[in-house]
Amino acid sequence: MDKIKLTGLNFYGYHGVLPAERQMGQEFSVDVSMYLDLQEAGQSDKLEATVNYAEVYAVVKKVVEGQPRKLIESVGEEIAQNILRDFLPVQRVRVTVHKPHAPLPGVFMDASISVVRSRA
């Protein structure tokens, strides 16, 4: 199966368990991999034969900048479900949500989750 990948979509959101996270907010980064058949798009060179990246970006932005969630797992789940709902050619999606400024008591590069969801 073919893949469209969007990497490093950066937004500011208010997700977290701690009250300070939900009040002050922080940066989040999202990677999306969508698995679908791209043969028709490759042969026809027509946008309507694939998934419009700008529309996917808008879906991710709406979720990350939208309603605060306690868990980034919830953020990833909502993004994945919305992509499967809104983009019918997508058969499977992997969403990774990065929280580089998670409140951990030590030095670290990134805290992230990944969810993989498929069309039933």
UniProtKB/TrEMBL annotation:
Pathway: Cofactor biosynthesis; tetrahydrofolate biosynthesis; 2-amino-4-hydroxy-6-hydroxymethyl-7,8-dihydropteridine diphosphate from 7,8-dihydroneopterin triphosphate: step 3/4. Its EC number is 4.1.2.25. One of its GO terms (molecular function) is dihydroneopterin aldolase activity. Keywords: Folate biosynthesis, Lyase. InterPro entries: Dihydroneopterin_aldolase, FolB_dom, GTP-CH-I_C/QueF. GO terms for biological process: folic acid biosynthetic process; tetrahydrofolate biosynthetic process. The keyword Lyase applies. CDD domains: DHNA_DHNTPE (cd00534). Residues 4-117 form the Dihydroneopterin aldolase/epimerase domain. It is an enzyme of class 4 (lyase). Transmembrane segments: none annotated. It comes from the Bacteria. It catalyses: 7,8-dihydroneopterin = 6-hydroxymethyl-7,8-dihydropterin + glycolaldehyde. GO terms for cellular component: cytoplasm. Catalyzes the conversion of 7,8-dihydroneopterin to 6-hydroxymethyl-7,8-dihydropterin. Belongs to the DHNA family. This is 7,8-dihydroneopterin aldolase.
